[in-house]
Each structure stands twice: as structure tokens, then as C-alpha cells.
Write a structure and sequence with these properties.
The protein is built from 12 helices and 5 strands. The protein is an alpha/beta fold. The chain has a 5-stranded mixed sheet with strand order 1-2-3-5-4, with helices on one face. A hairpin with a 4-residue loop joins strand 4 and strand 5. Helix 5 crosses helix 7 and helix 10 packs across helix 11. The radius of gyration is 20 Å and the shape is globular.
Length: 303
């Protein structure tokens, strides 16, 4: 049963999802230069060239910066560890250098770090204290690992599905400004993203097999935009659950309550996300389609 929101809590139950979500024109959406360059390559040289370029990029250990939902589709050599913690991060840990390690677990969630162990222990204790407020989501997430390190998308945290890892950056500017509770709130949200991995994987499968293209055509929408909207819808639902968890735990309005200022409806959420990182999901769709076309071409040559 859901607990009653604490005094001063501004959480509101969101209204129904709009039948036709906000549809900004894709050509007016800013796309980072490195993503635009790859899309231009796809148009001029074809899908196979794009796939080869990405394979070279991964082989050279360059990261998939600019993506909001973790790593790009396909294999990657990047390890899910914090071995390069100090060299990769732009700032020193907010409490000074801490070379202690920590390993622990809460349910199926493992917490592991070779640096900044005291903070990881605090995070583990925080999640343990919140356990009863989202036990179902934690169980659905399954066995995952929480680590410290730089995120590929540049945010405080991200869910890396291929590595089954939640990566958190304790030296992010937002954490330095708001304190460790900002990091803890991000951890809860990324665990929620992990719990919805099956939905995201199904959406990727629909992108690969052409289902997204048919669904988008039926609504007269660009398929890449349709895919991006549906990914954002998954995250929006997680944001609603996040606010409920914080309300039930009596933490509404704290720095861990990441979505306390949101209006609560999907259209407002989508508008804000589109201004920040939804373009990376448009890019991801193009890569999924390019990868599929390349694989189909390879199978055709082998016959």
C-alpha cells in the first residue's frame, strides 16, 4: 500500500497520457556534431560503412558520449569497472580522496567499488532503507551491479544494459552542488530503468524488425522520432514511480527527489527531454536499423 505523502509534498498523480504526444520537427532538433557526422556518413556511404566505422570506434576504445541511455547497440570492449576512476573523472571526489573499497548487496543489487568506498557504503545503506518502498522493482531488475565512474552520456547516472550495470558519477557537478542525496536519487532512478529493461529490449527488437516503421507510418510519424518518444515514455513512467517512492519514504522535496518540479504529464516531460537528450535516441534508432541492414546484407552474400 502506498504511504501518505509527507507535509509540504507537492507530488500529484499524473493525468492520462496524451493520445498524440508532442511532435517537434526533427529538423529543428539540435544534434551534436559527432552524431550528425555519422548520420551524414550513412546517407552518403550506406549502412555498411556506418557499421564498419562504429566497429573501428569501439576497437579504439572511444566512448559513446552523447547517448542518454548508456552504450550503443552492438559489442563493446569497454569494461564495466571503475579501474580508470581517477584518470577518467574531471573532478576529485567531493569529500576528498578516498581509496577505500567496498562490496555489498541489497537483494539482487550488488554495490562494488575500488575507490570512494565510504560513499558506496552509504549508497548501499540508503537503498536498503528504501527497499520496502520499491521491492517489486528491485526484484524485477534482477542481478545488477552499481559502480562509480564517468557516464557515457555525461549525466549523474545511467543504466548500461549490455553490462547490466548502473554507472554513477559521484564527482558530477550536480552532486557537488546538491550533495550525496542527488547521487542516491539517481541510483534509484537507474535501478528503475534496469527494471524496465525487458520493455526497452522489446522496443529495440521492434526497431530491428520493422515494426516501429509500420507503427509510425500508421500515425504519420517519423519512425526514429516514434522510437525516441516510446523510449522517453518508459523513462517518464519510471519518473512517476520515482516520485511515488520518494513520497512513500517521506523524502519528497529532498535533493534525492529528482522529479519534484515536474508537472507530471508526459507531454511536459517529453518537451523537457527533447531539449536535452532525446536526439540521442533518434540516433540510436538509425544505428539499430543500419546494423540490421548490414547483418542482412552479410547473410545475403554468404548464400
Amino acid at each position: 500500500m502506498r504511504g501518505r505523502p509527507g507535509r509540504g509534498d507537492q507530488w500529484r498523480r499524473p493525468g492520462p497520457e496524451p493520445a498524440h504526444p508532442l511532435r517537434p520537427r526533427l529538423q529543428d532538433t539540435p544534434t551534436p556534431s559527432h552524431l550528425a557526422g555519422v548520420l551524414a556518413l550513412q546517407r552518403s556511404a550506406g549502412n555498411a560503412a556506418v557499421t564498419h566505422t562504429l566497429a573501428v570506434q569501439r576497437a579504439s576504445d572511444s566512448d559513446d558520449s552523447g547517448l542518454a541511455y548508456g552504450s550503443l547497440p552492438g559489442p563493446s570492449r569497454r569494461a564495466s569497472s571503475d579501474d580508470g576512476y581517477d584518470s577518467d573523472l574531471a573532478y576529485e571526489p567531493p569529500r576528498g580522496r578516498d581509496d577505500t573499497s567496498f562490496q555489498g548487496s541489497v537483494g539482487g543489487v550488488s554495490f562494488a567499488t575500488r575507490h570512494n568506498g565510504r560513499l558506496m557504503q552509504e549508497l548501499s545503506s540508503y537503498i536498503r532503507g528504501m527497499y520496502r518502498h520499491f521491492a517489486t522493482e528491485l526484484a524485477t531488475a534482477g542481478r545488477i551491479t552499481v559502480r562509480f565512474g564517468r557516464t557515457q552520456g555525461g549525466g549523474v547516472g545511467e543504466w548500461r544494459s549490455q553490462e547490466r550495470t548502473v554507472m554513477l558519477d559521484p564527482t558530477h557537478q550536480a552532486v557537488r552542488r546538491a550533495g550525496s542525496s542527488r547521487l542516491f536519487g539517481a541510483a534509484v532512478f537507474e535501478i528503475l530503468n534496469a527494471s524496465q529493461e525487458a520493455q526497452r529490449a522489446a522496443l529495440d527488437a521492434d526497431a530491428r524488425n520493422g515494426t516501429i516503421e509500420r507503427q509510425a507510418a500508421a500515425q504519420r510519424m517519423d519512425p526514429a522520432y516514434f522510437y525516441a518518444v516510446e523510449l522517453e515514455r518508459i523513462e517518464w513512467r519510471n519518473s512517476v514511480v520515482h516520485r511515488r517512492i520518494m513520497a512513500d519514504a517521506g523524502r519528497s522535496g529532498t535533493n534525492a527527489d529528482l522529479f519534484s518540479a515536474d508537472a507530471g504529464d508526459f507531454e511536459s516531460y517529453l518537451r523537457r527531454q527533447w531539449e536535452s537528450h532525446s536526439h540521442s535516441y533518434v540516433f540510436r534508432y538509425s544505428l539499430l536499423r543500419a546494423e540490421t541492414a548490414s547483418q542482412q546484407g552479410s547473410h545475403g552474400h554468404q548464400r
